[in-house]
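Need the bound structure for alpha-D-galactopyranose, inputs here:
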Amino acid sequence: MARARSGVDVAPRGRVPYGPPRAAPAAVIPTATLITLLACAPDDSPMPRSIATIPFGTTATGEVVDLFTMTNANGIEVRAITYGGIILSIKTPDRDGRWDDIVLGFDSLEPYEAGSPYFGSIIGRYGNRIAGGRFTLDGETFTLATNNGPNHLHGGDVGFDKVVWGGEPFEREDAVGVAFTYTSVDGEEGYPGTMEVRVTYTLTDANELIFDYRATTDRATPVNLTQHSYFNLAGGAAADILGHELTLDASRFTPVDTTLIPTGELAPVEGTPFDFRTATTIGARIDDDHPQLAAGLGYDHNFVLDGDDPDVTSGLAEKNREGLHRAAFVFEPLTGRTLEIHTAEPGIQLYSGNFLDGTIAGKAGRVYGHRSGFCLETQHFPDSPNQPAFPSTIVRPGEEYSTRTVLTFGVAG
Ligand code: GLA
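Answer from helper R.:
Posting the output first, comments after.
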């Protein structure tokens, strides 16, 4: 617990102290013995990692969708499909060796197509909002779909979450993964330039899930790719995510107007409900009387990551892992599960599942109530194409957009 609460410490590195769920038949071995066996399994008898591909379904327009099941040497399992690059499930152990699925979603393809709040999907061409669905680039004004009130959200009517990607499984010495590829044609959803996009998910034996995003274009265009998994680290043990203890390595955030477009200010979190520099439950201040919480109906804000910004003196900036900075650490007290996020991106969107309202029945019929999942979307800041003071999101011909985010799963206290 002390580790998780410290706010600056990191999750246990390396393997979780548990083996895979299928290591021994629970029915014939007493629970106490089973836990001992599982605790010994990874070092004594590592499971072979694996990657399997099977058909998942066919879209309404007849496109075949594949399902990839990635399993690492410790038994952590990630399932993802070629429709939207959607992560269907992530199974990890809790502190007592009980395994559960820690993301929200559906069991079959049809509900993803019928209307999903971006459960588990790749987001593009532009993650988050562009004001008024318009931006001007090199003197030309482009008009995008306004699919979120007056604004453009998550790539438009048919964003990267609603297309079928190519998918190629791969295996390395210490990891398995899938490379998703997609060609976004010139003019798609109003964006300029044909863009070749490649997003890989790599599940390592160090219990990391690595997202690598790459894109090239034949014409200047904004790009801001992210991953929209909704986490509930309690698995089935808690209906909402308000008890999760969150640390964000961010001394500032970007306040928004009532349509969730940044005002342009980088506001200090100090003294506000947006100060997560030391571990605080998501629910502790979510209903405070604060105009920004009123605008977001809770947390739905971009945080400015301290990274290696010399102007920031919080002391939380922590460079590691091939130049990535830590963005977030989450500890779920009921189960002990932890999630740590490192990224090359300057921002992270904390979305506390405010629009979930109990009308969606997900996996195994489970109803997803208000704030039953949270998203931590690494990104450039919302509306950057219209905000010259924000880090640029423009990629030009001859350049490569390349960014990485690493999730690390663990357990603590
Ligand atoms: C993002 C947005 C939210 C919401 C969700 C999807 O996180 O910032 O406002 O649109 O996606 O429901």
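Comments: The chain has four helices and 30 strands. Residues 117-118, 128, 153, 260, 300, 349, 351, 355, 375, 377 surround alpha-D-galactopyranose (CB under 6 Å).
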